[in-house]
Amino acid sequence: MKVINFSESNSIINQYMAEIRDAEYQKNRLLFRNNIQRVGEFEAFEISKTLNYENKDIKTPLGIAQVNIPTDKIVLATIFRAGLPFHNGFLNVFDHAGNAFVSAYREYVDEAHHEVGVHVEYLATPSIDEKTLVIADPMLATGSSMELGYKAFLTKGTPKRIHVACVIATPEGIEHIKKTFPEEKTTIWCAAIDPGMNEHKYIVPGFGDAGDLCYGNKI
37-63 as b/e, with b when 16 or more CB fall inside 10 Å? Predict the structure, then answer.
């Protein structure tokens, strides 16, 4: 399974990541959401290079232009609520794509908040059968929510290609995807890979809780 880590080479995405991580800068939710969205746009552009294309004649006001057009049918999937700005970045690029949504949230199963479960309860998706599925979630920590979301989407078909896209991943999360997703047709895309997680399963150094930073604290 191929893992694309954009932090291995310098690009403007470094600036977006610096601002996303900055504890002062991220206090402005609008700016934080915008940077998450821009990372999504960047990753979507790179994913577009892997698609299948065919040549088409396009009629212009002055003649005929030949243009290579992508032929893959794409479904963009995300996990509520943290994934929404990231998803919008992908949708800005793949504006003809179908859209799929699943609700997943953390459940702490012990009083010390050390054991974390993931609960899935809502699913809205078109058929993904024989389509290119892009699952966009900002944080790939343990990989559990990504796996459960993927299994929920599989009730609507079997995709021909899978792209797992995130802003920050951990080695543990990547290994979990490698074990639970089909190896030959899955690619992982991330803007950075951080070394690990704390006892509450938050990525360290990471940038905090993506959902809260985008939309405010929850109760």
Answer: bbbbbbbbeebeeeeeeeeeeeeeeee
Tens digit of each residue's pLDDT, the chain (219 residues):
999 999 999 999 999 999 999 999 999 999 999 999 999 999 999 999 999 999 999 999 999 999 999 999 999 999 887 889 999 999 999 999 999 999 866 565 555 544 445 566 788 999 999 999 999 999 999 998 899 889 889 989 999 999 999 999 999 999 999 999 999 999 999 999 999 999 888 999 999 888 788 877 777
The answer to whether the Cα torsion of 150, 197, 166, 41 is positive or negative is positive
Which domains occur in the chain, in start order? Answer: 2-50+72-214 (3.40.50.2020)
Length of the chain (residues): 219
Are the C-beta atoms of residues 185 and 132 closer than 8 Å to each other?
Answer: no
- Count of CB atoms situated within 10 Å of the CB of 21: 18
Interior CA angle at 209 toward 134 and 42, to 5°? Answer: 35
